[in-house]
Request: fold
Amino acid sequence: QNQHLFSPLVEVGSGNSYSLSGYLDIRQITDGEVGFYIDEYDDTFSWISGQYVMGVSIVNAGDFGFTYIPTSIFVTQAALQVILTADSTILAYIDNIAWHAD
Reply:
């Protein structure tokens, strides 16, 4: 099964863009990937949709970053989901994840 790590919800506004950054250290990988996905919620905390942002599947250590833009006017909150794919063999560390309004 996939394994998931969820960030707390962050308030977002439609029409705005956000930069997410952090540090990822993949020490060992023989199968699978570390995936990054944004879950989107409305003002009643109901899940609306999500966006798969990127996946990393090589041994490497360093900073990462990407841009997130809410998919609709109904999205008022979002959360980062870090995913280890099912049957993966990964040893990785993640740290210092931050959201910044652009």
In short: DSSP finds no helices and eight strands in the chain.
